Amino acid sequence: MATASPETTKRLVVRRLIRATREEVFAAWTDPDSMAQWMCPGGIQTAEAQLDVRVGGKFRIVMKEGKKEYDHTGEYQVVEPPSKLVFTWISKGTDNRPTLVTVELQDLDPFCQLTLTHERFVTPEAVRQHEGGWTDIVSKLATSFEKTAAKKPEENTDFFMNLKYAVPARTLYQQFSTAEGIRRWWTGDCEMEERAGGKATFRFPKAGFHAVVRITRLEPDRCVEWNCIDSKHPEESGFNDLRDWVGTTLRFEFETVDESHSRLKFTHAGLAPLECFGVCSNSWSFYLNDSLRAYLEGGVGKPYQDDSAT
Hints:
- This protein is an alpha+beta fold.
- Helix content is 25%, strand content 40%.
- The chain has two domains: 3-149, START domain (Alpha-D-Glucose-1,6-Bisphosphate, Chain A, domain 4, 2-Layer Sandwich); 159-298, 2-Layer Sandwich (Alpha-D-Glucose-1,6-Bisphosphate, Chain A, domain 4), CATH 3.30.530.
- It contains six helices and 15 strands.
- The longest helix is centred in the middle third of the chain and has 26 residues, at 124-149.
């Protein structure tokens, strides 16, 4: 997800992992045709961009919503392909005063981490307005790459669960977005950098299993997504590939049913063809349907203990 944080009354930061190379993401910021598809926050339907991407070069972006048009202009101050762009940003939303935007791109194969910093605001209200706008823009940029990379329909390789719990979506979200939440239902041996782009490590010591994931999405009350970057089954499992979780994606999506109920749609993308499918699908069923439910609806979960199996 795109996570945003107004760090001071004059500054905000938006971060997002994008499934693309930083060269591809940098190119998207310098291509008017590409920008027309994703520089569209809120109800904006399209954008027209004129870009002179060089130090001292100017740009103009006109965002269009029906008959309404919103003009944005600025000048490039730093152009460092494929890692950094810095430009001024002037619009009605900034009271036509120059503010400063920095776009930084870091390679985290197979992702690019985008960090957008917008500073020199005059009022906290301007920060809040732009926070929502940039979060939408960065999310749409990421989605544009996901659509491009989408594979043709093929045999399903994913494992799914769809479960309903007697708690609000916010409570459900917290069980996956924090180390404290994970320890309540999955394993007490958990370390987590609780931010998009951070890592999380889950260990099951006596069972001989561990997994390390990159947190690729954190959308409060809506979605948590992890990409597995390291894992290992125990030698005694008999599996030919003890690290077959690597490269799989774990996605937890939350939906409000009513004030006191929510639904979890869990996807472990890429799990179905793996040797461990039988063991892992049974384990997910236990931890999500039994252990997590026991904690949420009874106050005491059934997380991994040294004498339990993963």
